[in-house]
Specification:
The complex is a heterodimer. Helix content of chain A is 69%, strand content 5%. By secondary structure, chain A is mainly α. A two-stranded antiparallel sheet of chain B has the order 2-3. Chain B is mainly α. Classes of the chains: A mainly alpha, B mainly alpha.
């Protein structure tokens, strides 16, 4: 079955079709949530909530846009809400206190696209920490646009559509995000 | 184009989000301006540093998410589809209620009346034929129909019944079935899942053939990426290298090309220098170009041919 057949079968209540549909996209969804929220537990929460919403509301999907766009719209809205709440609560730090001292939960997460990449292996932990800090300092919207463009390779037009804004607004967001990163990481890179 | 404009445009340039003309103007300026060339180099380095900071979910986290979702789906009911949705699904056709919708709605209503009328007709209506077998879990195809006397018809139906097989992934008969499924042109989801299962058995030469076929021919980039993942430990095998080289030069998906570069440069084979230089000469994706450039740099080779 191709994607539209899977969607129609899932709309008719075929759970196996729904699971197949989930598997087409769930790795990217999890990757996006993990990069934006920098916490495996929060990324799992977003994953669950996003696909449960899709499951409950799939009957309302009318093929007016691509399923990919519809799903990412749900995921990015959930991530944006979580980031905004986190900013309010000032819970941006991923460092937790354990019986063995302080531990950054992101240290347990694999990083980088390629295994065996010498540049990645050589990259100082200081630079990684600084990049995380800079990403945390971006506004939720800037961070989301940056994540979608840089790590997911989505075009600005598609990002605008997913965030319910224009391509130009997405471009401005990306511009601000890269400017801030260049300013903050200038001494490292 | 002025230096300030170049500085402001560098991120969009590296993301490939500028128009062709603007990109041309920027490249011409950078060719002649040492300061901007240095800025571009720094911006590329910044992008590479950011690439390396990406978090990748572990396989355990993904498995945990999937298992939890499966458990939660069992206790959640999807919202029921509306009446019109069910009517539309019944015909597998989606109407768009644009101008002229009353006519379309009228046509649909007539079809619905006919459809429901047929469905409500008692199955034991005198003279009717049994249709139960067609609704059973089997795929059916009407081969031909033939009149069989007044008011009657004879229909020849091809049927394929389903059965469930289970077995170990290293069982050759299971691998053969998965290999067939991995080439099913009509079902992307089935191919993704089949290749995903087969990729854990690359030590089998037959499985590797299937993975190599998928990398070269599958129309779905997701399937190609999974097949590449399965070939990771065989990147120094001559047949695999030859196929991957062809994929690098022909595949239209930048993600696939990037993954192929990562596989091919694992062993720093000198023969890769020429291939990567060829890619540099024709590649239009900035990110892939950067990966090539970095690989050539790591191998102590120039990014250009002279």
């Amino acid at each position: 079955m191709d994607e539209s057949e899977l969607i129609r079968a899932a709309q008719r209540g075929d759970q196996r079709a729904f699971e197949q549909l989930v598997r087409l996209y769930d790795q990217n969804v999890l990757r996006m949530a993990l990069n934006l929220l920098r916490s495996p537990e929060d990324a799992n929460d977003i994953y669950q909530e996003a696909f449960l919403r899709v499951y409950k509301n799939l009957h309302a999907f009318r093929f007016d846009c691509s399923f990919h766009t519809w799903l990412y719209r749900i995921v990015t809205n959930l991530c944006l809400d979580a980031l905004r709440k986190r900013r309010v609560r000032r819970e941006e730090d991923t460092v937790v206190e354990t019986s063995e001292g302080y531990l950054n939960r992101m240290d347990t997460v694999e990083e980088g696209r390629a295994h065996g990449d010498p540049q990645r292996q050589l990259m100082s932990s200081q630079l990684r920490v600084r990049i995380r800090q800079v990403l945390d300092e971006l506004t939720p919207r800037e961070r989301t646009v940056f994540e979608m463009r840089h790590y997911h390779g989505l075009r600005l037009r598609a990002i605008g559509e997913m965030l319910g804004t224009s391509e130009e607004a997405a471009k401005n967001c990306l511009f601000r995000a890269t400017q801030k990163m260049r300013a903050a990481l200038g001494d490292f890179v | 184009m002025k230096c300030e404009d170049v500085k402001n445009s560098l991120p969009l340039f590296l993301y490939g989000e500028m128009s062709f003309e603007a990109e041309e103007r920027l490249e011409s300026h950078v060719d002649e301006c040492d300061g901007c060339r240095a800025l571009l180099k720094r911006e590329r380095e910044l992008f590479q540093a950011l690439d390396a900071a990406e978090a990748v979910p572990s396989a355990e986290l993904l498995a945990q998410c999937r298992a939890e979702l499966r458990g939660r789906l069992g206790s959640v009911e999807p919202e029921p589809a509306g009446f019109w949705n069910r009517v539309r699904d019944g015909f597998s056709i989606h109407f768009h209620f644009a101008p002229g919708w009353p006519q379309v709605a009228g046509a649909v209503a007539m079809l619905v009346i006919g459809f429901l009328g047929a469905r409500m007709t008692p199955a034991s209506f005198p003279g009717s034929f049994r249709s139960a077998s067609i609704a059973e879990p089997a795929t059916s195809r009407v081969r031909y129909v033939e009149p069989a006397g007044p008011g009657r018809v004879q229909i020849v139906v091809d049927e394929t019944t389903q059965r469930t097989l289970s077995g170990s992934l290293d069982d050759q008969s299971i691998q053969r079935l998965l290999a067939t499924a991995a080439k099913d042109p009509s079902n992307d989801g089935l191919r993704v899942e089949s290749v995903n299962l087969l990729k854990s058995q690359p030590q089998s030469a037959e499985v590797r053939k299937v993975l190599l076929y998928a990398v070269q021919h599958d129309p779905n980039a997701g399937v190609r990426l999974k097949a590449l993942d399965g070939l990771r430990d065989f990147a120094d095998d001559p047949e695999t290298r030859q196929t991957l080289t062809q994929v690098l030069l022909k595949d239209d998906c930048p993600g696939v090309r990037t993954q192929v570069i990562d596989l091919l440069i694992q062993h720093h084979a000198p023969s890769m220098v020429g291939v990567l230089q060829e890619v540099m000469g024709k590649e239009d994706n900035n990110y892939v170009r950067m990966r090539c450039q970095r690989a050539l740099h790591d191998m102590g080779a120039s990014a250009e041919t002279y």
